[in-house]
Design goal:
Blueprint (H helix, E strand, L loop, with lengths): L7 E3 L6 E3 L12 E6 H10 L6 E3 L3 E6 L14 E3 L3 E2 L5 E4 L10 H12 L17
Antiparallel strand pairs: 1-2, 2-7, 3-5, 3-6, 4-5, 4-8
Length: 135
């Protein structure tokens, strides 16, 4: 159970935290995070074919994705894309450990699942543009 404890750094005490990948899981691709309101979290976790590290607080669930997973994607509202995995909470905790050694949830299945849940048609951005959300 110790592995499910929070793995985050509170940067400056401003109520924001950077999600850290647990020790022993390689994160060579860098880390960003995609958040969804908690009401969608459990359903998504059960339906995704592969899930990496997932964190939560009372309002949001956060999936770790490789850095740059917002390139050419417009993540639909109300999801939130966070570059560098900085999230607007300081009470987040790890709730799902991946079944393998990858901390990442594949971004395309995650994106398509969020589109389905929100009733949004997938929108592939123009080449080289980043999502307007996030920092």
């Amino acid at each position: 159970m110790a592995g499910l404890l929070s793995r985050r750094r509170d940067e400056g005490g401003d109520g924001c935290a950077q999600l850290d990948v647990p020790a022993g899981l390689p994160a060579a691709l860098g880390c960003d995070a995609v958040g969804v309101p908690a009401r969608h979290g459990r359903r998504m976790l059960m339906r995704l074919p592969h899930t990496g590290c997932v964190y939560s607080d009372t309002d949001w669930w956060w999936w770790i994705v490789p850095a740059g997973s917002d390139v050419e994607l417009t993540w639909p509202f109300p999801s939130y894309y966070s570059r560098g995995a900085y999230v607007p909470t300081s009470t987040v905790r790890l709730i799902h450990w991946p079944d393998d050694t990858s901390p990442y949830t594949p971004p395309i299945p995650l994106y398509l699942m969020i589109c389905q849940i929100t009733g949004t048609a997938p929108a592939w951005a123009s080449y080289g543009l980043r999502s307007p959300q996030g920092a």
